[in-house]
Amino acid sequence: TDLVDGSNAVRRHDYDPLFPAVEETRTLAWLDRLDGLVSRAGGRFTVEVFFDGPGRPVGGPYDCLRIRFSVGVRADDMIMGVVRLQGFSGKGAVVVTEDGGLADDARSEGARVLRFSEFEDRLRAKKA
């Protein structure tokens, strides 16, 4: 299972919380691109995308993505819960983030961590 820190992905590069419409536009474009990359890679794996905050429209439907929202907890905590569950089940998890704290926590639980550019490169090469 690939666990993607969606809020971190969308808020990279000159993010300004004063312009929520920009975040919404970025979210829709990024999810469309990600779904296309996963689809072209064969869809042989599960990609879960986690966002901070309550559910909201994020486009779709997406063929290859499962979108999850955090309500009352941080998306990072939800991601770590899945990492631990996968570990208890004997399955590995891949966490896709550029958040150093989340990356360190995920590695400490045995997950593999990829940056967004690495993840997208692997999807293009059909190796994710």
Characterise the protein shown here.
The chain is an alpha/beta fold. Helix content is 45%, strand content 16%. The protein contains five helices and five strands, in the order E-H-H-E-E-H-E-H-E-H. The chain has helices spanning 6-10, 20-40, 75-88, 100-108, 116-124; strands spanning 2-5, 47-51, 65-69, 94-96, 112-114. It has a five-stranded parallel beta sheet with strand order 3-2-1-4-5, with helices on both faces. It is globular, with a radius of gyration of 14 Å. The mean pLDDT is 88.
Instruction: Please count the beta strands (DSSP E, at least 2 residues each).
Output: 5
Task: Give the overall average pLDDT.
Answer: 88
The CA-CA distance between the termini, in Å, is: 10 Å
Largest sheet: 5 strands, parallel
Portion in strands:
15-25%
Low-confidence spans: none
Helical residue percent band: 40-55%
- Rg calculated over all Cα atoms: 14 Å
Subunit organisation of the chains: single chain
Structural class: alpha/beta
The coarse silhouette is globular
Strand order of the largest sheet: 3-2-1-4-5
The number of helical segments is 5
Key descriptive features of the protein:
128 residues; alpha/beta; 5 helices; globular
